[in-house]
Amino acid sequence: RCGAARTSAKMANMLVPTMALMLAVGPSNYILYKIAFTSYGASSALFAMQMVNLLFVVYGAVALYVVARRGAITDEMRASSKVPYALMALLDCLGGLCAALGAARTPGQLQTLLSQSLVPCTMVASAVFLKTRYGAKKKLGAAIILIGGAIVVAPAFRESAETSAVLIYWASNIPMALSAVYKEWRFADSEVHVLYLT
Length: 198
Description:
By secondary structure, the chain is mostly helical. The protein contains 10 helices and no strands. It has helices at 2-40, 45-69, 75-79, 83-103, 108-116, 118-129, 136-153, 160-171, 173-186, 194-197. α6 (118-129) crosses α9.
């Protein structure tokens, strides 16, 4: 009991620094994303996206190596078919491509807001493909996200140069939502470590 209490206290003490780190890294990620894609421009969006993907591969490999060394990745996980992972990767790639193509000409403050509309998109995809039902409060929350986003994004549509970029950036939510729903459906009955899945 004493060891479990110490472990629990240690984890509780890590919660505040972890949350603070997430609060710092989250906005920084959006800022760096905007800077990178603006610097490269729309003509080099595919190249920039591939560099972002390379970073994710490196970070993911390091994290996966750490959990694999701890024995969290089983032989059963390693032996599973890789086709579902390829389908997830395709959907994630399409989402990343749309975001990359729209990022250079979508204002940074709108990117953060447009990314939040992933929540209602995922809810709709879950309702259609997984037959998930949501209560009134969840529907209201999703509606607030969409309405708030529409109000803030509306001025961007007055400038024709930004309209297509904003729509392309927003469209990245569709394959991302489908990817999330596919993961839920495909791996619902499987024991797959989240880092191996990623």
